[in-house]
Request: fold
Amino acid sequence: MAFAFHILGTSSSGNCSILEAGGTRLMLDAGFQGPRLMASLEKISLEARAIDAVLITHEHSDHCIGLGALLRQNPLLKVFANRETARRIKESVKADVNWQLFETGTTFEVNGLQITSIPIPHDAADPVGFAIDCPPEEGRPSKRVTWLTDLGHATTVVKHHVALADILVLEANYDDEMLDLSKRPQSLKQRIRGNFGHLSNTQARDLLLGLKEWQTTELYLGHLSKECNRIIIIDEMMNEVRQRKTDLRITVVDPLEDNPVSLW
Ligand SMILES: [Zn+2]
Ligand SMILES: [Zn+2]
Reply:
């Protein structure tokens, strides 16, 4: 099994990726309903029972709603989460879960892969992002894949991990003006904009422009709001980042697209 990274989808409506590295298949978040999740796995020719472990960032449904369906196909699947996240999910998932608990901020191992959990500021019990160190294989150097969505703001820890990522999925949730003009209630707008809400396009760009040195070569901007963002707006905003870092490839993940985005 060679290295592969498949983003099955990332938006405010659902988040899920598959990382194949070092002979292990990991799912990062399981935020799609069963039928959509299974259809996405079929598109990358992967059966649910071939997945070794799933890592859950936090208990919001757009990150874990597919867990029950996944466990029906793969009952022994290892589910990694911190204690508080597991506790919240237990209330909604009926199935027995093979929980593998970790402490936020620590590095743990799954089948020889080193995984670091990264604390993030977001309005969930104990939300995290993940950085997975993939060993060298088939002549390709080692690389670090980092999954960071649902960020109220960019903390020092978040910036540190952004700079260390080779392959990075970063949130660019909303355009300020579109959020202003949307019909959403004021309280929801405040929640999204708050320090524990979501990262705007401007905040994502400023985070990247503020980095002195960073090694990312593949950047995926994700967790877009379907109502309050447009790919074309982010694309234009990222021009300054492209000029600053010419070896960087930027992909904005379409929140309306059902087909996986794959990197081999
Ligand atoms: Zn969330
Ligand atoms: Zn989310």
User: Anything to note?
Assistant: The two ends are 11 Å apart (CA to CA). The mean pLDDT is 96.
